[in-house]
Specification:
Layout lengths: L1 E7 L4 E8 L4 E5 L6 H10 L3 E6 L11 H8 L2 E5 L9 E3 L4 E4 L2 E7 L8 E5 L3 E5 L17 H12 L7 E4 L9 E2 H7 L9 H10 L8 H8 L6
Parallel strand pairs: 3-4, 4-5, 5-6, 10-11
Antiparallel strand pairs: 1-2, 2-3, 7-8, 8-9, 9-10, 11-12
Length: 229
């Protein structure tokens, strides 16, 4: 399996490229519109063909590159069935398995940051957690039908029950961190780790007074149209 972690500095978004050498196919997760050329160049350099575009959720801080990538490559786009983008080609439900060549993407519903959040267990040894779980943090819960209690349940019942050695690759990082493990986050995540009680987490998240994402008014409707605006 080919695995690359790519970064958008403006929104601190991680995009992931997953390639399968035998079939020479690739999937991209959470592409950013401004980096479509970069991503396509890398795919070409690796000798791959883009076939799958996955979104962890309808983003509020950047516009997806899914629409443009789909037009340029013919790849299919995949989003959550529940609350996702009606423009996508394939709706996903928790428990679905999508194969990119011989690489397996197993879908976990992990709502709470937004109602449509998905995580993807890739290749059996790593999980792309989107905005549900960050390295030593988590996504906010104050818009797009976010709910701190639902997020707590998603993380503790879905993500924290994965094997502790499972690599955690988040959707964002604002401090230069790139990867963690399920075991590390269970022990050291200041919001969700160390056995924090559900009620304590809800109170913490409800006390955050965060400004809205700068691009929210533009990004949410654009992303419900796969970035085609």
């Amino acid at each position: 399996m080919i695995f690359r972690q790519l970064f958008d500095r403006e929104s601190c978004t991680y995009t992931y490229l997953v390639g399968e050498e035998k079939a020479k196919v690739a999937a991209i997760v959470d592409p950013v519109r401004e980096h479509v050329a970069r991503d396509l160049q890398l795919i070409e350099e690796l000798g791959l063909r883009l076939t799958h575009i996955f979104e962890t959720h309808v983003h509020a801080d950047h516009i997806t590159g899914a629409g443009e990538l789909r037009k340029l490559t013919g790849a299919k786009s995949y989003v959550a069935r529940e609350g996702g983008a009606p423009c996508a080609d394939v709706p996903l439900d928790s428990g679905d398995v999508v194969n990119v060549g011989e690489v397996e993407f197993r879908v976990l519903a992990t709502p709470g940051h937004t109602s449509d959040c998905l995580s993807f267990v890739v290749g059996g040894d790593r999980v792309l957690t989107g905005d549900a779980l960050f390295v030593r943090g988590c996504g906010r819960t104050d818009f797009q039908n976010g709910d701190p209690g639902v997020l707590y349940d998603s993380v503790t019942k879905e993500l924290f029950t994965l094997p502790e050695e499972t690599l955690v690759y988040p959707g964002h990082d604002y401090h230069g961190r790139t990867v963690s493990t399920v075991g590390e986050e269970k022990r050291h995540n200041p919001r969700l780790g160390g056995g924090r009680a559900r009620e304590s987490f809800i109170a913490l998240m409800n006390s955050l007074d965060l400004p809205p994402p700068a691009k929210m008014a533009e990004a949410v409707p654009a992303n419900r149209s796969c970035g085609e605006i």
